[in-house]
Write a structure and sequence with these properties.
The structure is a single chain. The protein is an all-alpha fold and 496 residues long. The protein contains 22 helices and no strands. The chain folds into 2 domains: 160 residues, Glycosyltransferase, CATH 1.50.10; 314 residues, Farnesyl Diphosphate Synthase (Orthogonal Bundle). The protein is 67% helix and 0% strand.
């Protein structure tokens, strides 16, 4: 339980930050740096109105003079550019033309200022298709930052290493405020742990991965704000169950067992009466799904939002069908599918669409409505692009391990077979597709948008988790390694 004194201290800090936001002039560097620091922490939701008001005025000033403060300071221009684009305001990348020389190259003098190079590098990750100047800037900044590292101080070396590995646009909040944040998460997790323990999955499914902690971390990353507690609980349980089901379809279930389970899940009128059709070990999984549905329905009924349950069930059906389609490849003599055949199924089996939909089902905000649920299930470009990122990064990171376990081929094997190219060439091609998909995501997050920023942030945070999980190998599958350190740094040893 959080002590009243702790809550009082948090409230005092909030008021202090709010006063600073109001006091700093909109055209000041101090205002930009404060907004940046707040947005990169998990307390940003406390100041959404003040930040939006400040950035709107900054954008209006930019629009009037077609420049950011009329400043020739690359650090300031790049920071302002990134903050405005992050907020959905379109700022032309032409603001960086003045930093080029007469030959069209970026001025060499820029490389002497590490903060400016870092700021510029971070800004390039908000690029959209066709912005050649930002493509050029990415190569310019990343190459020079890498070459600088041996001569940098420990402080700047750490900053550069972090940025090169995890750019702000692709990363979750990097700073956490400590005990109140962790206690809210721990309360959710304890409830989930009891549910998981009572299911006895650890003993009845010894072949499967136990990823409850990771599932709760995933849901926490999508929405850490206290008001989304119900949504976090729903999402975490679904991810944990989907992980078990994925293992069953990949390595354990027989073809007939999987066919029967798929049929039961897809049958709209299936309930507990359908349990007799399933093998004994699959009954537990099926009952767990039904119980989670019942819990979701009960919670949603309190808010008058039971219509959302349909969307959750429908996406689960699609996911199970995709798992079965992949299992059919494994259980037959079917040759390696073409890339087009594989990607059609594997985009669904990545689970991103299911997770994206269920991440919205539990949101209690009054602005959430049926239009938004229809929007996400129609797979708008921002969701499609995020799904591509999820699928391809998963395959790049985990294809060798999956092949060792005898799983169906991934995009890597499909393209190698189809095009007769090497693994290294295929991975470069897939990484380019991932970068292209990020540009689609960035474009769809610029105003005017189809849905509220509140919704787009959930989609964006989901794909940020994907980047975290798969950039340095499949840390979700091998969570005793790097992912354990990530969870520990945030939930066990947070910044005070």
């Amino acid at each position: 339980k959080i002590h009243p004194r702790e809550r009082e201290q948090v409230q005092d800090r909030k008021e202090e930050v709010r006063r600073m936001l109001i006091a700093f002039p909109n055209t000041s560097l101090e205002k930009l740096e404060l907004i940046d620091k707040i947005q990169r922490s998990e307390v940003s939701y406390h100041f959404e109105e003040e930040i939006e008001a400040s950035l709107q005025m900054i954008y209006e000033a930019y629009y009037e003079c077609n420049n950011i403060f009329g400043d020739d300071n690359l650090y300031v221009v790049a920071l302002g550019f990134r903050l405005l684009r992050q907020q959905g305001y379109f700022v032309s990348s032409d603001v960086f033309k003045k930093f080029k020389d007469s030959e069209g190259n970026f001025e060499k003098a820029l490389t002497t200022h590490v903060p400016a190079m870092l700021s510029f590098y971070e800004a390039t990750h908000l690029r959209v298709h066709g912005e050649d100047i930002l493509e050029q800037a990415l190569v310019f900044t990343s190459s020079h930052l890498k070459s600088m590292m041996p001569s940098l101080s420990d402080f700047f070396r750490e900053q550069v290493m972090l940025a090169l590995n995890q750019p702000i646009r692709m990363s979750l909040p990097r700073e956490y405020s400590g005990s109140t944040f962790v206690k809210d998460w721990f309360k959710d997790y304890v409830s989930g742990f009891r549910w998981w323990r009572d299911l006895e999955f650890l003993t009845k499914y010894p072949f499967a991965r136990d990823r409850l902690v990771e599932s709760y971390f995933w849901s926490l990353s999508v929405y850490f704000e206290p008001k989304f507690a119900m949504a976090r609980r729903m999402l975490a349980k679904i991810i944990a169950l989907a992980t078990i089901i994925d293992e069953i379809y990949d390595v354990y279930g027989s073809y007939d067992e999987l066919r029967c389970f798929t049929h039961v899940i897809e049958s709209s009128d299936s309930g507990r009466s359908a349990i007799d059709q399933l093998s004994s070990y699959m009954r537990l999984c099926y009952l767990a799904i039904l119980d989670v549905y019942s819990e979701m329905e009960e919670e949603l009924a309190k808010k008058g939002k039971t219509y959302r349950l349909y969307y959750a069930k429908n996406e689960m059906k699609k996911l199970i069908r995709a798992y079965f389609d992949e299992a059919k490849w494994y259980h037959s003599d079917y040759s390696v599918p073409t890339f087009e055949e594989y990607i059609k199924v594997s985009l669904v089996s990545s689970g991103y669409m299911m997770v994206a939909t269920i991440s919205l089902v539990g949101i209690e905000d009054n602005l959430m409505n049926k239009y938004i649920m229809d929007w996400v299930t129609k797979e708008p470009l921002v969701v499609k692009a995020s799904t591509v990122i999820a699928r391809l990064m998963d395959d790049i990171a985990g294809h060798e391990f999956e092949q060792e376990k005898g799983h169906e081929p991934s995009t890597v094997e499909c393209l190698m077979t189809q095009n007769g190219t090497s693994k290294e060439e295929v991975i470069l091609e897939l990484q380019k597709l991932v970068n292209d998909a990020w540009e689609d995501v960035n474009k769809q997050c610029l105003s005017p948008t189809d849905v509220l920023v509140l919704i787009l942030v959930r989609v964006l945070n989901l794909v940020r988790v994907i980047d975290l999980l798969y950039k340095d190998g499949d840390v979700f599958t091998h969570s005793t390694t790097h992912f354990k350190d990530i969870i520990t740094s945030i939930l066990v040893d947070p910044i005070p």
